[in-house]
């Protein structure tokens, strides 16, 4: 199976957003990754439902929505209304994670849980069979274009071992500092999906860059 590629819209040109979405529609990208930030859980603010509600009208790719916010459970119905396929919530932001995961599924989406770089994968032992995907942050969340944290490769290996040991079916996604070099390491370690923002949108030929990532 080829690597799942989810370009991050955070790095798109928001003055030409429709153009960039049309490029992604033409490309071999599998999903479109949406980073929603509140300026509280992470030190940045990105975009909200005014943008995401427009995307469902023009995007031909499934939406993979990553909530970097406090109390993400408050917005499950709003996220579902955008047509999102995967809803990512942070382990660190959910006091009652199991309940949130069930609410996401009850609203017709696939639940995913995200771990910050400092959070050990061992904390997912009791939830891994209940989620469809785990997103490992390989940079500190909040800003694009950061340097890849090498320890992330080891975390992918640890997470893959957990999934196999428990006979779980969760996909492993990685976000942050992804390029052809780091992407190769991550896929070799067991990653199924790669989120790439600046590496895709800053390249001379984004569609070719996406194709190269899928070939890893």
UniProtKB/TrEMBL annotation:
It catalyses: D-ribulose 5-phosphate = D-xylulose 5-phosphate. GO terms for biological process: pentose catabolic process; pentose-phosphate shunt. The keyword Cytoplasm does not apply. Binds 1 divalent metal cation per subunit. InterPro entries: Aldolase_TIM, Ribul_P_3_epim, Ribul_P_3_epim-like, RibuloseP-bd_barrel. One of its GO terms (molecular function) is metal ion binding. The active site is at residues 35, 175. It comes from the Bacteria. Its cofactor is Zn(2+); a divalent metal cation; Mn(2+); Co(2+). Keywords: Carbohydrate metabolism, Cobalt, Isomerase, Manganese, Metal-binding, Zinc. Substrate binds at residues 8, 66, 142-145, 175-177, 197-198. Its EC number is 5.1.3.1. A divalent metal cation binds at residues 33, 35, 66, 175. Pathway: Carbohydrate degradation. Transmembrane segments: none annotated. Signal peptide: none annotated. Belongs to the ribulose-phosphate 3-epimerase family. Catalyzes the reversible epimerization of D-ribulose 5-phosphate to D-xylulose 5-phosphate. PANTHER family: RIBULOSE-5-PHOSPHATE-3-EPIMERASE (PTHR11749). This is Ribulose-phosphate 3-epimerase. It comes from Fermentimonas caenicola. The gene is rpe.
């Amino acid at each position: 199976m080829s690597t799942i590629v989810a370009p991050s819209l955070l790095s798109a040109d928001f003055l030409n957003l429709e153009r960039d979405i049309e490029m992604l529609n033409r490309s071999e990208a599998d999903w479109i990754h949406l980073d929603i930030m509140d300026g509280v859980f992470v030190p940045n603010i990105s975009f909200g439902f005014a943008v995401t509600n427009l995307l469902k009208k023009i995007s031909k790719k499934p939406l993979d929505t990553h909530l970097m916010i406090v109390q993400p459970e408050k917005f499950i119905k709003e996220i579902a209304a955008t047509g999102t396929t995967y809803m990512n919530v942070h382990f660190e932001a959910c006091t009652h994670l199991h309940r949130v995961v069930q609410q996401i599924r009850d609203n017709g989406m696939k639940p995913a849980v995200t771990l910050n770089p400092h959070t050990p994968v061992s904390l997912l032992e009791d939830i891994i069979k209940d989620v469809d995907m785990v997103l490992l942050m390989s940079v500190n969340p909040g800003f694009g274009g950061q340097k890849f944290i090498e320890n992330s490769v080891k975390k992918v290996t640890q997470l893959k071992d957990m999934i196999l040991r428990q006979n779980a079916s969760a996909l492993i996604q990685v976000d942050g500092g992804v390029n052809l070099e780091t992407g190769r390491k991550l896929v070799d370690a067991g990653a199924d999906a790669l989120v790439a923002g600046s590496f895709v949108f800053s390249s001379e030929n984004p569609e070719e860059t996406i194709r190269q990532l899928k070939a890893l």
